[in-house]
Structure formats: C-alpha cells, structure tokens
Design brief:
Layout (H helix, E strand, L loop, with lengths): L1 H28 L6 E8 L6 H16 L3 E8 L6 H5 L5 E5 L4 E5 L2 H9 L3
Parallel strand pairs: 1-2
Antiparallel strand pairs: 1-3, 3-4
Helix pairs in contact: 2-4
Length: 120
Amino acid sequence: MRKWIGLLVVVGLLTGCTDSSTQRTIQQFTTSMENELHFVYFYDDAPPEEKVQSQLKGMKVFLARKNIQAKITYQEIYGERNFEERLGVEDKQILVFDYKGIRFNAKNIHVLEGMILQIP
C-alpha cells in the first residue's frame, strides 16, 4: 500500500513540474496589458522569408489602427530552451499571446490573418 501511495506522490510531483515549466515558458511571451498582443514565429533553421515578415508587420499595422499594440518575435525552436518540447510547436508555427496566455495558434499565415481580422 505504501508503495502505491509513494508512486502516486512521485507521479503527481512530476506532472506538476512539467506544468510549471510550460507555464513559465508561456509567461515569457505574455503581454502586460489587455490591449496588447505578442506574435511569436517559431522556426527551425532560419527566420521567415521577407514575405511572411511583411505579412506579420501588416497585421501589426492593422491592429494599431484598432488601438491594439503588437510585438513580433522570431524564435528558434531549439535555442536555449526546447520550445517543441515545452509548447509543442513546429517549424513555421505562429503563437499569439495576450495578457492571459496563448490567444491564437496557427501553422499557416493566411489562417492567422483571418483570425486577426475577426478581432473587434
């Protein structure tokens, strides 16, 4: 009986540590204000091509017209931290963070544009 209880405690601790690591990673990208977004483009080998960067900047300008501040970051997946392991991201995936956490998740820039156009 004690072995089972000990095993459950260890599993609970390991699960809690994993969730904490993911939460800390998300907090790294969250914004401090309600009307602010942070676009994070994750990549394997090289930052996105000029066309994608231009599209992201266009979304930033669109949001500014709606009084929503936006920040864009290009983040290597396998840099200091393994974002694939912590956030489950893939090459060319874009996460958009707000003050609560992850707001949008897109693997296609055109899908993300559609999501951004829906913001009131």
